[in-house]
Design goal:
With 490 residues, this protein is an alpha/beta fold. It is built from 14 helices and 20 strands. 31% of the residues lie in helices and 19% in strands. The strands form 5 sheets. Strands 8-7-16-17-18-15-19 form a 7-stranded mixed beta sheet. A 5-stranded parallel beta sheet has the order 10-2-1-14-20, covered by helices on one side. A hairpin with a 2-residue loop joins β3 and β4. α13 crosses α14. The longest helix has 21 residues. The structure holds flavin-adenine dinucleotide.
Length: 490
Amino acid sequence: MAYDAIIIGAGLAGLTSALLLARNGRKVLVVEQHHSPAPVVSGFERQGIYFDSGFHYAGGLGADGPLLPMLRYLGLADKLQLFPYDPTGFDSLRFADSGEEYCLPVGFANICNYLVEKFPAAATEIGIYLNEVASTWRNTPYLDLDVDFADFSMASVHGSSLQQRLEVFSPWPQLQSLLSMHCLLYGVAPDKAPLSLNAQVAGSYYHSAHGIVGGGRQLIKALLQLIGEAGVELQCNAEVVSIRAEKGTAAGVRLASGEEIFAPQVIATVNPVLLPELLPDAGLRPAYLKRLKKLRQTSSAYIVFGRSKQPLEFLRRRNMFVQPAADIFSGIESPLEQRPFYLAGADQDGNGTVTGLIGIVPAHYSEVESWGFAGKKRTEQYRSWKKEMTDRLVQMLRNNCPELSQLELLDLATPLTLRDYSRAPQGGIYGVARELGQYNPLPVTRLPGLFLAGQAVTVCGLMGTMVSSCLVCGSILGHEFLRGELKKWS
Ligand SMILES: Cc1cc2nc3c(=O)[nH]c(=O)nc-3n(C[C@H](O)[C@H](O)[C@H](O)COP(=O)(O)OP(=O)(O)OC[C@H]3O[C@@H](n4cnc5c(N)ncnc54)[C@H](O)[C@@H]3O)c2cc1C
């Protein structure tokens, strides 16, 4: 079979890229190392409750939202039912020491009014700051379908850190917390996070916050159905061990099984740190490969999947961030019990009773490194350590949230789980860290025919991965053509 393009990885970026190309007449093969597609986002069931694993909510899907033309063009809009998060408070923040709680409403103007009411002395600065976020968060190709590519540089991340920008709010540590809490959703601490990165992620949620009925599982089901209809082939249990290059251009891939598959275009959605190993003879500059190898990763996490006998009303159509005390968010280096964390309900449609809980507590890979043997087999010692960790985490959640007094743990993902499911180096929860000063991998590489898509190229999440797919497929199909197609659905 002759393919026009082979895509490595069947995550959100791989499936979206496949659909974009196939819709435009390309013959596409997607290869995925895991036994099933989208291991990060597909979710799983325990004791009758569906738990999302890599998708809880998305920003930018409200009226005028920049993701809507993409969903419509891809055919996803007809297959997904969105439900809005609580407009009066989609993300709440609790301080463990005081029990004090804040709740951000949906929409820039509502957030501004709410914050000004809570912190009247900071009114002017709040207005200036939110205006900055509102005017920058979607200022990127394919979120803004008119932005000039020439004005847009992705190669490295410059500018101020979020922490520096929030210094102006230092008399109001609660406000600093509220404006920095979304760093837990991209895995970079505020002192290293570019202001633009925080604006992209937090700004999309300030604009609007939606869940998908059926969660990540439904999103993947819809994508699989659409790529099937478009004629894309998908192979799972198909690990790529090298990317072939011939006469200075990409030529295909070699699988762990020894099979070689040929195509003039290869799109890699793997973590770019893994790329140099896959490109032994491609003739790429050693300096480029070294840069890729040295890319720092986002923090990892312990992910608690639990169930409560008592309904978790406080997590219906909203998430909760918990911080030990008001301050700019930090603390991954702190002892476990003093770290901030994030809670989401296992909420399938925003209407039912929520009894399932997903808790994400930042972690460092070094905490599990001694268990980090190659392969997925776990030892008895690891299992007993995990049991102990489970008890500590449940206790920590209960101590901070009385609503969780009836919490029972059903499963726990550790940095090793993240590493093994999707080949995330060091269990990085959101892939490569888009830290200040760090090189950003670009969608078009120096090897003609080899492209990079996925969260490392743009930003993590549904929005970032879809934009990355447009950047790559636009490079292949023509940006003006693809933007023109998307504009028809604006
Ligand atoms: C706990 C958690 C919660 C999240 N919550 C949200 C949320 O609420 N909203 C949101 O928008 N985003 C959320 N995200 C982020 C979002 O899930 C990711 O940004 C997105 O799934 C990344 O997609 P990707 O295609 O770039 O990467 P991946 O999903 O990692 O895809 C890469 C694929 O490549 C495969 N692969 C790797 N190496 C090889 C190889 N050699 N050969 C073949 N295949 C290979 C991997 O198995 C993987 O399937 C969350 C993520 C996590 C982990």
